[in-house]
Structure formats: structure tokens, C-alpha cells
Write a structure and sequence with these properties.
homotrimer; 568 residues; mainly alpha; two-stranded antiparallel ribbon; two-stranded antiparallel sheet; 23 helices; 4 strands; globular
Chain lengths: 568, 568, 568
């Protein structure tokens, strides 16, 4: 009954909207947001991308019968949604003194670019040069600076409006709670927006590169640097002498990995500087947060892979420097698991948590390689305790673990990472590949086989940058197998070593080709990073409807998603 | 309100049905299903049990005013349930061209034999010689062959009907989802049908022996072969020399166990050949599937128990042969735990999962006994990892573990199995009953004591063949205690060895007596194996009602079960 | 709608009650309960505290217009709640033959003392000398004796009434189910009554000291005796020689701890003798039950801390004596975890469960110190198995663990206890602080740090006697660090030892000061122990309302608590 009413009433509004003003709807709106005539010309935009849209606005105002949707000035009206927006013909209520209403009310706006999609022949009318303020809330300084400028220019005419803007802005800056990530996103990496959700940032447009550059990119560094270790091990292991591997691959891979790490770190540093809000949202993302361990693990890998021609013995202080951020992150992350709240383990457990465990074992291995004694055991112990907890939790697949993918997914290869590194670390600590070291090694081997026989499950999954992070466990298992071959040298172990090394190198090469294709040919390696653009609160029904109406005409999906929502 | 209406309305239909035609209801129905006049005579049944029922049908048609329930021909009408079946007097719509409508629609039919129970003086009218096609869907070849015959004879007149039959048949052949097992069955071994459920196979009749022969029967082999190991250990352990045990018990038990294994394997092989559907359903049963490890574990036990007079050193290739199926099953089962879906661990965890773990340790023990090195550690490692997961999961008793019995149950003795075998395996791998071996041994001992002090909980539980599987952990603990006594020989450990061995032998003897009583005196050792006869889909309410009405007149049970169902 | 009606109707009754008779309400009621005129004088009370209240009753009856609430005599009417109590002026229905109606119906009564709180100028009219029978159900002999006396005097005139009384009495004596504790109490130690609950014992009055003396008090013994071990270790460890600690602190602390243990044990023994019901309720409390391990652990600590001047080597039989009750309790508690029912681990898991684990490791340490071999490994193994289960369960923070505090709480320091004692135990068993011993030590250290960096969370939490139990893990970590320093002696480990010892001593001193302040200045060290006074069944809505109305006038709380309740 209720549902029928909704479907009767709201569409009438939508119809009215769409038949009358779809073409102008979007642009004038942005014009409004971008301080239209005659104020626009007066603003000197600091970032220097913004140009006046007044001209184009005027043009269109003359060309056609445009309807401007003037958003209500009071903050209480900010969340009323689509059904209550007033349709005014040739409105002249421009709120000229408010320099960033668009910024403040940005959440309302994104429903509109979507709406207009209905109209097939829509053109992005405003020129490329127009500074798109929709990204401002994610920028580090934008708001503050603009506000200072605006205040200097003495234009806070509508005080209430500005206050509302500020509070709204603060609301946007506060990252969404972890529940929102689970509610708004889906997929094993929580990177797809659910049908009922709307994005804070425009979905129809390519975002600035930095906003699209995810922390997952450090996964590439993990993949390449672990390959460098593999080839170093193949080169230096007496048991693999029969392969006559030259030291060159290690050297090349190491330099390549170094370049990659420097590049990715530099770009991500820029993101931290210019879009701190986006970084914060990645840090609060229950899957992404684990990737913050990746840069440090990659550095540890680099230290392990350092070619003998560059350095034979590394100084222990490097170990202390690299382990400090890992230790800090662990105090934070493991503490969140235990101390409850939204980020407790039974809620956030997912295979990418292995990234936050594996650092301990890699650190223990490097430390033991350097001849340290207590430090490696410390990290080994911490890793072991938390690995047992995580292993049991993930194996149990508690119904509360919302992120655990229903089907197998490459992320499951992270299961192999911790035990394969742990066995090497223990072998190095103990000075012998003893029974205690073989136990994690064989666990890794079994998990590897268990996943390998299910490999056809992986077909048909969309390529993603995160896959790189799922290659290093395979490489780790290969290296562990070589170490094991050094302890038990026979034809079977040697064949296994060659096999696993080949698979790992083949996988990395394939991924490299895919990555190059996506980066340079398809040019979609960095799609809009929708995971960081979720709204802080559940969108209103009217928005969901609008979003839905615009994106598809299949009413069954909506019904199912609504009823699914109401189940919770 | 609604409930009252249901109790007013539906019974009226039932009353009509029952007062008019109860006697003929069943038989004519089967007559219908069994391709009645004049087609029946033409069919040459391959299994050669089937004889024409036409004669008896005719007789009865003359004798009384029979109502034939003609099932609707369209597939959409197949699930309409009892309330909508049409009551036609002297119907002549026999669908003569459909050779196996009964087979196809068998699910509808089982409600009827139950219904007729209401009528006290019902006789099974169709002669014993009549081939009961109700078991056909579980037979391996029946359907296909019959269909081929039917096709050869060119009688698929009602195409639609046949299509419906085929799709329905496929539906039956597809085993029920794991959720259905949890929904339809109850008890710690999931072997009792819930009040609201109906069985696919006739509940009022003894099924063919093979259908009643469960995979649990391999538990007997486990019990007897582990006793053979116990008596071998008592005979050969220097620490137990003071008992002066002769090698005879070991020899006798070993041959008995061998005979048992051969017999049980042969019978089960017959079941695989003739009732593959039933085997498939056992394999999909969340408790039963673990018993598929039992034959291989029993073989490992046989290899461990081999009397010194027969062989002193077994050849390692036996180990590889025996471990292969265990390894394959593990890849499958553990993969299901981890990879989610319906069979994830948090859903299916129950003590019988220990059977799927203990094979690793038994294998490791046998391998280490044979002098192998890496293989045993591999299985020990795999067993350890999964044992920790299972132990924690079972100890936690998550609310999602539907199968975990509320009360203690003999199945809990399986808790003792893994650690007691693990300690022996580790002691053999390490070559010494060291501290690491004592830890699992003492865990087993504590669990044993913990269960022993609760032994009175076990009283009053119905005897079941599965109990045999719960004796081998006691035997395992006895053997481990003897091994421990060899490491720590004093009066306490010797007494403990004697005590535990006595308890284990006493338990096995008692079970043997019980089994013989049930097998030869009560003749109910193999009751109808209702666990494999659940319907693929939840039965309709009308069927539940019919089932209920026929089986008891206590309306409170129904109400409670209905309301309980609606809670979920 | 419904809620509005409730708020309209019931208050009218309340208003009537409160405006007419608040002053006399309470006293006459108790007069009634205490067998009023003319029976009262005839009763000779065995405990000799009770004096006739008839005089005071008579006085008040003359003084003012008293309304006596006569409770219905039939048992069916016992639970009707407040709204149905009849208001009779100058009632003369005294049920003179019922010797303990108050005892039987005591559950009804507690709502009344609360009700009268509304009236600000209420005075406790009945003299201190009046024996308050409200505590009788918790007394060990009171009821039985009184009943015997009453029966001897031949006064069971109203048979039915007595029967009701007896059954009601049994109901009270039967401890509440574990679910009731979770439903009725809140807070990390489950020691605060929820807003919707009522207490069995009067909340407005100080209870007898024994009733207020909780088993938590043994926590003080744990804190002081562990300090004695610390100072013994500081004195005797060669690695800490540079501190020149005298043996005096150990000696003083040991004697102090001995005195404390004797005192606390004596008082608690009195409680067992005189208020067995209260002890039983503590034993059934899901958090408190773990404190029943505390006395035995404290004794183990005493044996470990014994000053060298008193004894150098303790006799092993002490170990066997002390471990027996721990072993028995473990069989009981761990069995409950595993065997399901209301006390399964996934339900009752909370950090105080560590108390039930740590005894194993302390026992293993003491046994190994005494030179025993197998016993310590046994307890180490049992402890390890259950520690892994508990550690994983607590770390996961399953949504079913109702008691786990949302925020961090001192109870979390118990996490540190088990691994820090375990490392010492293993080091002693193994005879060397080896890698296997370092793993638990480093886990303890990491957990310590993880909690220490969150220490500001602990501010603002109300002091409680239970905190003492949370100091011994810190002390344990200090001792473990000293042992570790003996294995790895350098400036860092020495500083860490000094640091942790200082923190632990400082914490204990601070707690001592707090305890003295609360005991002798604020005189609230032992507040009414509301955890043991919960009703066996959920209170009726009318009682909740009454309770609520009397304790606060904020109707939002009630609404929220009601709606929260209805959610379940």
C-alpha cells in the first residue's frame, strides 16, 4: 500500500522536473553553486583553475527557458531531498553573498547530475575550465582559504546560511562511521556502491587523479619487491644452483621496485597534502586501512631483496626505523579489534587483515637476517598471537563478517602470506629449518593447494589494482619452498620450488601486462574511487529513488533493495 | 485469528477426503503412478520386481466408490498441495502415455500414505510383489532406463507432462541444500525428522536394506581396529609387560576388523552402485559427510594394528595410497569451511568434524612409524591448524552452530580423539615423548576427565550405530596413556593405563552386545535412514498439517512448531 | 497509542496510592509481613534480633489514617503487581495463621519501599531493633527453623497459603538463570541494576555486612600477595642486584597478605555459613564465578612468595592440596563452556574468565618451582588449550558476548596475566627462558603496551573493589620482565624491569589509599551488592513502572528502556 503510494506520488514530481527543465537543471544549478552573475567575476580563485561561468550561464539563460532550483537558505531545509525542491522559472534569488553554498549543500547536488542522465542527449555545458567545487570538501586547504578570502571581502551577508554551511562542512569532514562503509559499499574489497546509495562526489565525471589514486597502489610495490626477493633467493640458494640464475633479475627488479615505491609514495604524499579528507576516509575504510601497512612491508621487502652487489649487511637501525610505524599501526589496529566499538574484529574481519599481521613476520625475518635476536622474537610473538585469532576468525566465517566474500576471490591468497613468511622467520630465528618452522610452511602449502584447486572460481572477476597485493603471498610461498628445499634437497622439493617460482613470476607478469593495458590503453587503471565518496548518513528515500530512477528503469531491483534494507 | 481459520477450513477438506475414500486413496493413487490399465502390462521392468497392479486396481474400482486424486498435468500445479487436489469420482484421466508420473511427482504422494494412517484398519492392498517405485529416485539407473524404454516404445504423448516429470526428477536428484538438513532434521546427529517435515520415502514401511545402511557403519570398523591397536600396544610395550598380554587378542581383533571393513565396504559399495542418490545425500549431510573419512582412518588403524606375526614393516607406498583420499577429502571439506557459502564452518561445526581432523594425525603417526619424515609433518601441520580452528569453534558454541547438541552426548568423546593421536604422532615424529607431545596428551586427558565426570548425562540417549565411532577416542586415549607410561613409568601411570584400557575394552564390548541385540534380536540396527529422505524444499503448510493430523492428534505440537517456524 | 494509555491509566492508581497513604504504606506493610497483632508477640525468634513490631504498629494505626495493602491469599494472585493491589482502609484481614507471608511474597514488597521515596520526608518508622525479615531468603537456616517452630506451635490454619509460601520460597532459593543476570544487570562487571529491574532486597537500606561482602574481596589478596612475589624476585634476582632491595618488603607484604587472606577467608566463610543463598547467587553470576578461583590463586601466590627466611623449599603435598580445588572448579567451569546450555562460552565470555585460566599457569609455575615435572605440564597444557580458546573468543568480541564492556576497562588488564605467568611457568618447566617462553612473554608485553597507550580510557570509571584483581597482571608482567632480564641482561631490560615494577607498586599503593579512603572515610567500600539481589523472573511491567516512577521522573528513560526491551 505504502509502496504503491510512493511510486505514484514521487514520480509525478520527477516527471514534472524532467519534462520541463532537464537541460538547464544541472548547469544552472552549478552556476548557482559557483556564485553566478554578477558576483562570479569578482572572485579570484586561489587554485587558479576556476573561471567565471557567468558568460555561459548568460548564454543559456537567453537560449532557453531555464528553471533554476534555488536551494532553501535555512539549514533545516538542507536535507529535505528532491521532492521539496522548488521549481522557479527565471528565478533571481541568487544569494549573492554566499561564496560557497554549493560546497555547503553539496550533498544535495549529486542527485541532480544523475537525474539528468535520463535525458539522453545531455551535454556537459559548462566548460572544462570551470573549477569544480564538488571536490572541495576533500581538499585539505580549500575551504579554509576560501572562507578567509570571503571574510576579507566582507560578504557574509546571510550569516545563518554561512553557519549552516560551516556545520555542514564539518559534517562532511568527519569521516563516515565504519557501519556506513558496510552499509553503503559491497564487494569483497568494499569498493562498489550499493544500488540505494549515492556518492558524495560526482559519479558521472572523472575525478582529479589524486582522488582516484588509492592506497592499494602500494600493492604493486609489494608484488615487485617480493619478486626481487624471489630472484635473489633463486640466485643465492645452493639448492637452486642447478638453475644457474644470474643476479641480474634481482638487480633489475630491485631498482624497478625502488622506483615504484618512490613514485607511489610521492603521489600518495601529494594526496595526503592536497586531499587529506580522502586519505582519512581511506584510513577509516575497514578494508583499505590494512593497506596502510603495505608501504612499510614493501620497504622491509626492499631491505630483504637488497642485491648483494649493493649491500651485504644492512645496519640494524634501518630495522628499527621501519618497524616503528608498523608497531604504531598495530597498537592502533589490534587495539581497535580488542577494545570493541565499531571496529571490533568480529565485525571487520576480512582476508585483507592479513596485511596487518604479515608485517610482524616480515619484520622478524629481516631482523633475524640482520642478526638481531629479541626484536624479531617480539614481532614473531605478536604476529603469532594475532594470526591465530585472525585465522580462526576468518576460517569460522562468522555471519557478522559482512565483508567476507561469498565466493572465493584473489584476496584469499593473503591466507598464504603469513604462514609462509612465518616459517622463514622462525627458521632464521632458530637458525635451522626445524619442525617448528615446517609446521607453518606446510600450513602455507596446504592453503596454497586448497586455493589452487579452486582457481576456476576466480575467473570472471573484474581486474583491480588490489590484485597486486595478492601476488606477494604466492611469491612468499615460492621463497619459503626454496628455503625448505635447502633443508630437504631432493627432486620433489626442487621441482616444487621451480614450479611455484614459475607460477609466481607468471602471475606477476600477467598482472603487469593487465596493468599496462588498463593504464595506457583502456586508461581506466584508476577509476573513480567510490569507496571514499560515501555519504556520512544513510541517504533519504527520495534520493535513493532518484538515484535509482536515473540509473535504471528496472523497478524490481529497487523494490528488492528497499525491502532488503527494511529487513535490517 | 488466522490460525483459527486455518483450523476450521482445512480440516473440512480433509474430512471430505477421509470419509469418502481413504481406503482407495492410497492404492489407486499408486495405481495411477504405476501406469494403470491398460499400459501397465506392456511395461517390462528391468529390475523385474514390478508386476502389474492393474488387476488389484480393477478389483477395488469395482468394490467401492473410489476417488482418484488426479494430479494436475502442468508443472506449475505440481506444488499446490493437498487443499487444491481435485476430487474426481471414477476419473478416467489416466495420462496413459506418461510412464513415470509417480516418479516425477513422488513428492506429492508421500503425504498420502501418511494420511491413510488415520484409518485404523488400513491394509497394504497391493501385493508385496508390486515393485515399489517410491524408491526409484534414489536408485542409480532406474529412471534413466525406464525412460529409455518408454522412449523406445514411442509413448511420450503428453510432452508437457514429460518435461515436467523430467525437471521434477532433476530437482529430486539434486541433493537438498545444507540449510534444508538443518531445517528438516534435529538431534545431535541430525537424524530425526522434525514434526513439521515430511519424508520423501515412505515412513511406514521398511526400506531396502541398502538404503538403510548408513556410512556411519564404518564407525564399527574404527572401534574394532582401534581395539586391535590397543591390544598390540599392550602386548608390545615394555612398560605394560607386567600384564603379560598375549599377542592373540591383537591377532583376533585385527582379523575381525579386516573382515568387518571388507564387509562394510562391500555393502556400501553396493549402495554406491545401486543407490547413488542416497550416497550423495549422505555426502551432503553436514554430520554424515565427516564419516566419509572413517573408511580411510579405519585402514590407517589396520596398518597401525598389523600384528607383528603378519608384518613388521609396512611399505611406505601403502601410506601414500591411504593418505591420498584423505587429502582429497580435506581439500574439499576444509575448502568448504573457508570459502563460505552454506557449508562455512560457523554453520556446520559439530563434534563429528573431529573425524575430518583426526585422519591427519593418524596418518602422521603411521607415516612416522614407517620412518617417513616430511609427509607426517605435513599432515600434522594441516591437522594442527584445522584442529585449533575447530577446537575454538566448538568450545565457543556459537549460537549459529545449530547441530551442536544442547546436552552432552557420546559424540563429545570425539574431542578426545585428535589430541590423543596428535601426541603419539608428535612423539613419533620427534622420536621422543617430549614436552610438546605431553601438551596434547594432557589436553586429551583433561577432556576425557571432563567428559567422564559428566557421564550420567549420557544416560537415556537412544542407542545408535554412530556410537561406535565415539569409542575409538577412548581407545586412542588408552594407547596414548600407554605410550606416556613408556616415557614416565610409575605406579600411577601404569594404573591409569590399565584403567583406561579396561574402560575402553568394556565400552567396546558393551556396544558389541548392544549391536548384536539390535541386529539379531530387536532387528532394528538399521532403521529407516530418515536423514537422507528429506524433501528438497520446505513442505507446504497443508502438507505439514496433513502430516501432523495423521501422525498425532495433539494440536499443541503443531501450533508450537508453526510458531517456532515463523520465528525464524 | 498503547503507550499513551499506559501512561494515562496506571499513574492514576499511583497517585491515589501516594497521596493517601505514603507514610504508613511501608511500615504497615512490613507489620503485615512480620505477623502483626496479635500474633507477633507469640513468636520467639531464634536469631534473637527480631522484636515485636506490634507496639509500633499499634501506635501508628492510632496516629494516622493508614491504608493496609492486604495481599491476596491465593498463590495465583501473588504476581499481579501493583495495579491490582487492593486499597483497603483499616483492613482487619491479617491472615493471622500465616507465619511468614512476607517471606513468601517478598518479591512484591520491594516495590513499596521504593515507591515511598517519592515522599521526601519519609522516616524509617520501625525501630532498628525490629528484625528485618527481608533478608531471610538469603539466610541459610532462618526459614526452615521458623517454619519448624511455626509447625510445632500448630498454626498452619491456611494450608493453601502455606503451600504457596513454600513454593514461592523454593522459587527464591533457586538461583536465577544466567540469562537473568545478563538481563537484569549491566556494566563490565555486571554489578549495576538496569533501570527496568527491581531488587529482591531493599535498595534503600544498608544490608547486613556479610551480604555486602563480595567474593571479589579476594582480589585484594591477589594484589598484595603478588606484590610479595615481586619484592621477593627483586630481592633475589642477580640481574636486579644493582637495586639493593632488602628482603624486608617481601617479608612484610607476605605477612600482610597472609593476614588479609585469613581475614577475607574467615569473613567469606561466615557468609557461606549464614547467607548460603547469597554465595550461591555469586557462584551463578557469570562474572563473579571466576572470582571463586581467586582464593586458591592467592594461596599459590603465597606459596610462591614465601620469604626465604621462613621456608626455602615447600613440600609438594601443598601443591596437590592447592591444585585440587582449582582442578575441580575447572572441570565444572570449562565443562559448562563446552557442554552448552546457558553458560556456554560464546555467551559468558568476558575478561574475568582469565581468572579461571591463570590458575593453571600459576600452579604450573609453583609445581615446577617445587621440582615437580608431570603435574605442572598437565596444568600448563590445560591452561594453554583453554587460553587459546578464551583469547580468540575475547579478541573476536562476538556480538553475543553481552558482558564485554563497550569501552576499555581495568578488567582488560587480566589479558596480561595469563601469558606473563605462562612464560615463567614454561621457563621453569623447560629449565631455560627459551624461545617458547619468550613468545608468551612478548605477547604479554605487547598487550600491556596496547592497554597502556589507552590508559586515558580508564579515567572516570567508578572505583570498585574488583580493581584489586586487575593489579596482579601488572605485577605478574613485572616479575616476568625480571625473569626475562635474567636471561637477557642489558640496560634496556633492566630499565623495563624497574619501570614496570615501579608502575605496579605505584598502582597497588594508589589502590590501597583509595581502598582505605572508601573503607574508613567514605565508608562505602562495601555497597549493597545488588548483583546478587536480582529477581528470578523478569519483573512485571507495572513494577518496572513503579520502580521507575519512584526513582526518577524522566519519562524518556523508561520509554527507551521499554522499547529496548521489546526489541529483544
Amino acid at each position: 500500500m505504502e509502496k504503491t503510494e510512493l511510486q505514484v506520488e514521487i514520480p509525478s514530481v520527477l516527471k514534472q522536473t524532467s519534462c520541463q527543465n532537464i537541460n538547464g537543471f544541472d548547469c544552472v544549478d552549478y552556476g548557482n553553486g559557483n556564485n553566478p552573475i554578477p558576483l562570479e567575476n569578482a572572485i579570484s580563485d586561489k587554485e587558479s583553475h576556476g573561471e567565471s561561468t557567468a558568460g555561459s550561464n548568460m548564454t543559456r539563460l537567453e537560449q532557453q527557458d531555464v528553471i533554476i532550483i534555488s536551494l532553501p537558505a535555512s539549514p533545516s531545509g538542507l536535507h529535505i531531498g528532491l521532492g521539496q525542491t522548488k521549481l522557479v522559472q527565471h528565478s533571481d534569488r541568487y544569494n549573492p553573498g554566499n561564496p560557497y553554498p554549493q560546497l555547503a549543500k553539496q550533498k544535495q547536488f549529486h542527485s541532480q547530475p544523475i537525474l539528468v542522465r535520463e535525458n539522453g542527449d545531455r551535454k556537459v555545458v559548462h566548460s572544462e575550465a570551470v573549477r569544480d567545487r564538488r571536490f572541495d570538501p576533500f581538499k585539505t586547504w580549500s575551504g579554509k582559504l576560501e572562507r578567509q578570502i570571503s571574510n576579507l571581502r566582507g560578504k557574509p551577508t546571510h550569516e545563518a546560511d554561512i553557519e549552516a554551511g560551516v556545520s555542514e562542512r564539518e559534517e562532511i569532514e568527519e569521516a563516515p562511521g565504519v557501519d556506513r562503509y558496510f552499509d553503503a559499499l559491497e564487494g569483497p574489497e568494499l569498493d562498489t556502491l550499493r544500488a540505494t546509495e549515492v556518492s558524495v562526489l560526482p559519479e558521472d565525471k572523472k575525478w582529479p587523479f589524486l582522488l582516484r589514486f588509492p592506497v592499494n597502489a602500494f600493492g604493486i610495490c609489494l608484488g615487485v619487491s617480493s619478486q626481487a626477493i624471489l630472484w635473489k633467493t633463486l640466485n643465492t640458494s645452493p639448492a637452486m644452483n642447478f638453475l644457474h640464475i644470474s643476479p641480474m633479475p634481482n638487480l633489475i627488479l630491485w631498482w624497478a621496485a625502488l622506483a615504484l615505491i618512490l613514485f607511489v609514495s610521492f603521489v600518495y604524499l601529494l594526496k595526503i597534502v592536497f586531499y587529506f579528507e580522502a586519505v582519512k576516509r581511506e584510513y577509516h575504510h575497514p578494508v583499505r586501512v590494512n593497506f596502510f601497512f603495505a608501504p612499510w612491508i614493501a620497504c622491509l621487502f626492499m631491505a630483504l631483496a637488497v642485491p648483494p652487489s649493493i649491500a651485504v649487511n644492512l645496519r640494524p637501525f634501518i630495522w628499527y626505523i621501519l618497524m616503528t610505524p608498523i608497531f604504531m599501526l598495530e597498537l592502533k589496529i589490534y587495539g581497535q579489534w580488542m577494545s570493541g566499538g565499531q571496529r571490533r574484529l568480529s565485525k571487520v574481519a576480512n582476508p585483507s587483515n592479513h596485511l596487518s599481521i604479515v608485517g610482524n613476520f616480515v619484520g622478524a625475518l629481516l631482523g633475524a637476517n640482520m642478526g638481531l635476536k629479541e626484536g624479531p622474537i617480539f614481532f614473531f610473538a605478536v604476529g603469532l598471537a594475532h594470526y591465530i585469532v585472525l585465522f580462526v576468525t576468518l576460517y569460522q566465517r562468522l555471519p557478522t563478517n559482512a565483508t567476507l566474500p561469498k565466493e572465493l576471490h584473489p584476496v584469499f591468497f593473503l591466507f598464504v602470506a603469513a604462514p609462509s613468511v612465518a616459517c622463514m622467520a622462525w627458521a632464521k630465528i632458530q637458525g635451522d629449518f626445524d619442525h617448528a618452522a615446517r609446521i607453518p610452511y606446510f600450513i602455507a602449502l596446504f592453503l596454497y593447494m586448497s586455493l589452487a584447486v579452486r582457481v576456476n572460481f576466480f575467473r570472471g572477476i573484474r581486474f583491480s589494482l588490489a590484485w597486486w597485493a595478492y601476488t606477494f603471498p604466492m611469491t612468499g610461498a615460492s621463497i619459503a619452498t626454496i628455503k625448505y628445499t635447502m633443508a630437504v634437497t631432493n627432486i620433489v622439493t626442487r621441482s616444487l620450488s621451480v614450479c611455484l617460482s614459475a607460477i609466481s613470476t607468471f602471475t606477476v607478469s600477467t598482472l603487469l601486462v593487465y596493468t599496462i593495458i588498463h593504464a595506457f590503453i583502456l586508461r581506466d587503471l584508476f577509476p573513480n574511487d567510490i569507496s571514499i565518496a560515501i555519504t556520512r548518513k544513510k541517504p533519504k528515500f527520495s534520493k535513493m529513488l532518484a538515484h535509482f530512477r536515473s540509473s535504471s528503469s528496472d523497478s524490481k531491483d529497487l523494490d528488492s533493495s528497499i525491502s532488503k534494507n527494511s529487513e535490517f
